[in-house]
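Build the 3D complex.
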Amino acid sequence: MWQNALTLVVDRVRAARSVVAATGAGISAESGVPTFRGAGGLWRNFSASDLATPDAFARDPRLVWDWYRWRRERIRRAQPNAGHLVLARFETTLPGFQLVTQNVDGLHQRAGSRRLIELHGNIWRARCTAGCGLVTDVSREGADAPLEDAAGAELPTCECGGLQRPDIVWFGESLDPGDIDRAIAAARGCDVLLVIGTSALVYPAAALPLVARRAGALVVEINVEDTPITPQVGAVLRGPAAEVLPALEARL
Ligand code: OAD
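Done.
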């Protein structure tokens, strides 16, 4: 029962000078946003190499944009869940709290999180591919149109005339060096790392638990299933994040 492990986690969080949470798609699962690899996961039905690589975009930008617009409209209809809301409150209730996410859905911000490192970008931004590099907020685009109208819309262009792309880190691309450096420094400097709703398969994000553990932190996995890091963590809270996080918060 994860309730037994909770006592250890509560003690260590209470004593911590710094707590870091690293989230993946599982934190948004109970908001109705599909994960990537689990049952009903996006990569079970769609091919990452056709949709989430620079080559895919060069080959067929319309296909890629249609897919991201479709995901955007699903996310727009979703609401932050109890897990997102607890993490937003931890910013003020826990010392030195830092949130790091692999998610691009923006649900942490909508829940109120501000101290946030988004390692894989954000689906609500577009970026110019023509070299001017301008990043644009696209959160209003399509907001008033029904979901079915998202497919087949015009390809978005920048002020400079260049083609825009989703501001997302695709397979084969590097993360922003400042973001990953800050995330690694946070993992190295924390006393407790909460690893929430990630399959821990995509690097370098998947290295954060190892960095924290080597530096002496208690690594806590909050997930509905085992992952490759399960044998290496100090505590496992096996359950949905939207239940486990409120239970943790209630005991602090
Ligand atoms: P995955 O889909 O690989 O893993 C989701 C994890 O969440 C799994 O381990 C599930 O067991 C767990 N999970 C599901 N529901 C949960 C719940 N209610 N509470 C807690 N855990 C739950 O997603 P990520 O690990 O985030 O990259 O994937 C990493 C990256 O791969 C993504 O950022 C994305 C993808 O390709 C980009 O888009 C660049």
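The CA atoms of residues 87 and 113 lie 7 Å apart.
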